[in-house]
Write a structure and sequence with these properties.
Two copies of one chain form a homodimer.
Chain A lengths: L1 E9 L6 H12 L5 E14 L4 H16 L5 E9 L3
Antiparallel strand pairs in A: 1-2, 1-3
């Protein structure tokens, strides 16, 4: 059993209204040192695969087919051995 | 200038309907090897601080005050030097 961690982030050229709103709220709370905020998704999956390469392939597939929108988002997949 | 990366994940005991829906959709796409999906947030901030410790403190503050809901969510903060 492997654990896949996928970071999905909006591409740099895409406006991030959720991040903008958080940034604005943080400014209002007095945190002027924060210059920009961008919010993406962190997806954790348990994958039952024979080896790490196969687990990576399954996770990539899941991203391409469903989890990420490749037009607007970048993603990267990391696979760990599941210690639990 | 430092870059803070914050992973916000739902606590294990909290039901994750978004993850459940993604898991179900992946099963329907034939990806039976995926056993569970949980979806959290990935927040990236640019922080203007004199040192790494101060940047960490600011990011922790932002999480505690606004970005994470400590009742339902766990978060962890990583600070990198901003290379850009």
């Amino acid at each position: 059993m492997y654990k896949a961690t996928v970071n999905v982030t909006l591409r740099k050229s895409i406006l991030d209204p959720q991040g903008k709103a958080a940034h604005h709220a943080l400014q209002n709370l007095g945190m002027k040192e924060i210059d920009s905020v961008r919010i993406g998704k962190l997806i954790e999956m348990d994958i039952d695969a024979e080896n790490k390469e196969r687990a990576h392939e399954i996770a990539e597939n899941a991203c391409a087919q469903l989890l990420a929108n490749e037009v607007m988002e970048d993603y990267n997949v990391t696979i760990h051995e599941n210690s639990e």
